[in-house]
């Protein structure tokens, strides 16, 4: 599921979705299909357990053994809810950390992902991870060599394309080099601007 679709399913407005996509830089995939399948499976288990409890409570109020079963199912529901929330939180953190490392051109994202303190990261109701930016900046300062630096400057001259150099002088030199003396070649090389 694409991030945009996920956010829309959570009831966010188009403007909020656009702001989130702008901040992340792209409409990333938030899962690879496994998470959606697991979520559906957990929701089905939860629905089945709730239906069973309702039926048992309604039909067997006086039966003590069945009341124990109801209590047991209620505990299973609590466990399922807790587990599913933890798994959803873990998936949200994995995706946010992965996106941060990709955006900042980490050389070894799997290694660096383990350096985040997940206990200090908070996933809010809208799926935003709070505290990721601060930890990420600390990580980038601590492990500078693990991130690709952006290189800036001018494009060096290329004899193939003649960029940054005087094209006509270079072309003349190539065409006429066989018929020129060493002094003439040196003079033309001196005229080229790199």
TrEMBL record:
Name of the protein this chain belongs to: Phage minor structural protein GP20
Region ranges (Disordered): 149-168
Keywords tagged on the record: Coiled coil
InterPro entries: SCAF
Pfam families linked to this entry: Phage_scaffold (PF06810)
UniProt keyword annotation of Coiled coil present: yes
Superkingdom as given in the UniProt entry: Bacteria
Lineage, uppermost ranks: Bacteria, Bacillati, Bacillota, Clostridia, Eubacteriales
Coiled coil: 39-90
